[in-house]
Write a structure and sequence with these properties.
Layout lengths: L2 E6 L3 H12 L10 E5 L5 H9 L8 E6 L1 H18 L18 H7 L4 E7 L7 H6 L4 E5 L4 H14 L6 H11 L3 H14 L7 H13 L2 H9 L3 H13 L4 H23 L4 H8 L4 H12 L3 H19 L5 H12 L4
Parallel strand pairs: 1-4, 1-5, 2-3, 3-4
Helix pairs in contact: 2-4, 7-9, 8-9, 10-11, 10-12, 12-13, 12-14, 12-15, 13-14, 15-16
């Protein structure tokens, strides 16, 4: 099938793209036949022209589009909000809810066999209108970060790929601290494999490097809080406490991340590129942008606002002496979890 959709975890999607290119034998195409396009900047006519062209002095033409499905998802959310605010009929959309992208139904089957079209994106909902359309036109892979035994296998395989082995206790310690943040896990396994060269990675090795892990773990803590994993969130935040962080500074870290999520959500709905988002978030780190954008995609404005409000209430309770800091932190973790 000449069209593919790869979406989900921001670590697994690029891996899957590299694997697809290798298996199809298109990992060494001429630059003229390799198109990397942003969904916020491409239009249907341009895409149709590129996909319909034969490759120049090569076997294939590869067209990779980033963020188009996520953009359509954001637009769908805006339409739902508009309809809920207006009962006059003016909020209903004129024309296609996909803004013309339903024409892909004609363009993809007519592409020459030499064109390989790939849509890549972060987390998406099953109701995404463009995803629903593309399911019948392309090979779709939902690439979610593993958990439980699947995550343990991933870590063992990743360690093996770096020429290392990891003990069960070290593996548990690492997952307790990092969760299933694959970018952080890969980075820490790289350090651990070098630190424990020639022997199995043990729990004490994780302990030696753990301070560095914890600094990057506010993402994992916020993830655990808002995804209903209070035990993991508390353990991560308590580790920060043991490192000398006071509760107020931890709350400030969580507040910062919620604020970045709000900025990322707004940037996503405006169709900004990843580099433009980085400038708006005030960071040059691709990791921070990717992670924050992934969090923003999974949480609505209402969700982010409600969590932010509860965070401010906890901060005020501590500063006014109404509640003991550690108890306030524990209650905050519990309140941030979604209802079951």
């Amino acid at each position: 099938m000449p069209a593919h959709v790869l979406y989900g975890d921001t670590f697994l999607v690029p891996e899957a793209l590299s694997r697809l290119k290798s298996e199809a034998g298109i990992d060494k195409l001429l630059d003229a036949n390799h198109h990397q396009l942003q969904g916020s900047q491409i239009n249907l006519a341009e895409l149709s022209s590129i996909c319909g062209a034969l490759p120049f002095m090569d076997t294939h033409r590869l067209v990779v589009i980033t963020g188009l499905l996520g953009r359509q998802e954001a637009r769908s959310g805006e339409r739902r909000t508009s309809r809920s605010r207006s009962q006059s009929g003016e909020g209903s959309q004129r024309g296609s809810p996909l803004g013309g992208w339903e024409e892909l139904e004609k363009i993809i089957p007519e592409m020459p066999d030499t064109t390989v079209l790939v849509f890549i994106d972060g987390a998406l909902t099953e109701t995404n209108p463009l995803l629903k359309l593309l399911k019948s036109l392309s090979k779709v892979q939902a690439l979610n970060a593993p958990s439980g035994e699947g995550l343990a296998r991933w870590i063992k395989d990743a360690a093996r790929g770096k020429g290392a082995r990891i003990s069960p206790t070290a593996l548990k310690s690492l997952t307790d601290l990092v969760g299933n943040d694959l970018w952080t896990l890969d980075r820490e396994l790289e350090k651990l494999s070098l630190y424990a060269t020639g022997r199995t990675i043990e729990e004490k090795d994780v302990g030696v490097l753990v301070a560095q892990v914890r600094e990057g773990n506010i993402f994992a803590a916020v993830d655990a809080m808002i995804e209903g994993r209070p035990g993991v969130a508390l353990k991560l935040l308590q580790q920060l406490r043991q490192d000398g962080r006071d509760v107020s500074s931890i709350i400030a870290m969580v507040e910062r991340q919620l604020r970045l999520m709000a900025l990322a959500r707004d940037s996503m709905e405006q169709g900004l590129s990843q580099s433009e988002m980085g400038k708006r978030l005030g960071t040059n780190s691709d990791f921070v942008v990717r992670k924050t954008l992934d969090q923003a995609r999974r949480h609505s404005w209402q969700d982010i606002t409600a969590r932010y409000r509860r965070l401010l209430e906890a901060d005020l309770a501590i500063k006014r002496g109404i509640m003991e800091p550690d108890l306030a932190l524990e209650l905050l973790v519990a309140e941030q979890a979604p209802p079951r």
